[in-house]
Amino acid sequence: MAQKSDNSDKNNKFCVLIIEEKSDLRTFFMGVLTKSGNYEVKNAATPIEALDIISKEAAQIHVVLFDWDMKEMSGDIFAQKIKNEVNYDHIELVVCSASIVEEDNFLLNELEIYHTMPKVVNAVDFLRNMEDIRSEYFNIQSIQSKIKNLKHLIHESDLQAIDTLFSNPEVENEITKNSKYTYLGGEVRILHKKYQEAIEFLKQHLEKNNTNKLNENLKTLNTLGKALCLIGNYQDASMIYEKLEAKSPNNLSHKIMLGDALLGLDDVKGAENKYQEVLDKDNTNNAALEGMIKANSTAGNFAQAKSFFDKIQGNFESKTLASFFNNRGVALVKNGKINEAIIFYENALQFFDKYKSHVYFNLGMAYYRSGNITSAVTCFQAAIAQDAKLAEEKVILRELKEKGAEKFTEDYQQSIQKRKK
Question: How far is 362 from 93, CA to CA, in rounded Å?
Answer without folding.
Answer: 43
